[in-house]
Amino acid sequence: MSAIDKAKNKLEDAAGQAKEKLGAAAGDRDKENEGKADQTKSNLKDAGEKVKDAFGN
Length: 57
Hints:
Belongs to the UPF0337 (CsbD) family. InterPro entries: CsbD, YjbJ_sf. With about 55 residues, the protein is mainly alpha-helical. It has helices spanning about 5-25, 30-55. Helices cover about 90% and strands about 0% of the residues.
């Protein structure tokens, strides 16, 4: 996994966590769910990168 991809995934995950927390604090379920979706997307990308690494790109 390239360091750039890993950093992007971590940033996307952190942004998703922030969105989720802000949505929860404001009572905005749409924003909260959007944050959860961003985190899931980041985790899937990270898993895909790990699979590519396992098979030698």
